[in-house]
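$ ./design --mode recover --in tokens.txt
reading tokens...
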């Protein structure tokens, strides 16, 4: 398989495109050269076969080829509303959620969040996560970049009635099994989509869970074991893929 690269510029067959610096550096690391085949995608759907025409130390040109409309998206849409996790956990979670087909990611500041982000610091982290999303799409074969929303407080986010379709709150106190509920509501969820709400380290505070329930979320369980925050969302995405046909 030719290496895949994301570019922001709109792609068109038969055009010559100057590749961005990030792609130039990546191509150099891979020891690519003129004449090598690559694949380019712009996040708008599908991809283009392409050929490197020039590759210098600081620039590269590619000849854009035919458009391939193939997609690797799951048949359902999931928004992951994730309580901010500390260290590199959030980076790892974003990357793996993209691989598992998440459609959108909403980072949330909750009461028990170890990390506190706002202003310029939040903007830097969001730019970093956006780069991780693009890199994960390059690796896993997706041609549509999941949307990344700005960091928001859980209270503000809940007040905006974010649930499009099923709103699911993952809680160790829940008694409703996520796999069983997904199997029972499969057809409906394929149409409406799903919003998954995951707490940070330590989970959501009781009043935050109550607020989510009042906003229309359904509390669901992943079984008797307590999962870490960076595991819970991914376990949910894998479950939904298995039950709803994403695999």
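writing sequence...
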């Amino acid at each position: 398989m030719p290496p895949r690269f994301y570019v922001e510029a709109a792609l068109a067959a038969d055009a010559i495109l100057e590749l961005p610096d990030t792609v130039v550096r990546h191509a150099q690391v891979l020891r690519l050269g003129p004449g090598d085949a690559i694949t380019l995608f712009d996040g708008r759907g599908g991809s283009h076969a392409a050929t490197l025409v020039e590759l210098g130390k600081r620039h590269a040109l590619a000849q854009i080829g035919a458009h391939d409309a193939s997609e690797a998206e799951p048949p359902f849409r999931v928004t992951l509303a994730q309580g901010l996790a500390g260290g590199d956990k959030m980076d790892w979670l974003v990357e793996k959620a993209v691989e598992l087909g998440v459609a959108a990611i909403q980072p949330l500041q909750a009461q028990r969040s170890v990390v506190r982000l706002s202003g310029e610091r939040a903007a830097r982290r969001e730019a970093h996560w956006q780069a991780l999303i693009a890199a994960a799409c390059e690796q896993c074969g997706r041609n549509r970049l999941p949307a990344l929303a700005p960091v928001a407080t859980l209270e503000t986010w809940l007040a905006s009635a974010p649930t499009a379709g099923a709103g699911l709150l993952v809680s160790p106190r829940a008694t409703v099994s996520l796999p069983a509920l997904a199997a029972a509501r499969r057809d409906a969820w394929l149409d409406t989509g799903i919003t998954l709400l995951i707490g940070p380290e330590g989970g959501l505070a009781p009043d935050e869970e109550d607020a989510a329930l009042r906003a229309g979320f359904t509390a669901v369980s992943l079984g008797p074991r307590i999962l870490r925050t960076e595991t819970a969302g991914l376990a949910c995405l894998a479950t939904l893929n298995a039950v709803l046909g994403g695999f």
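exit 0
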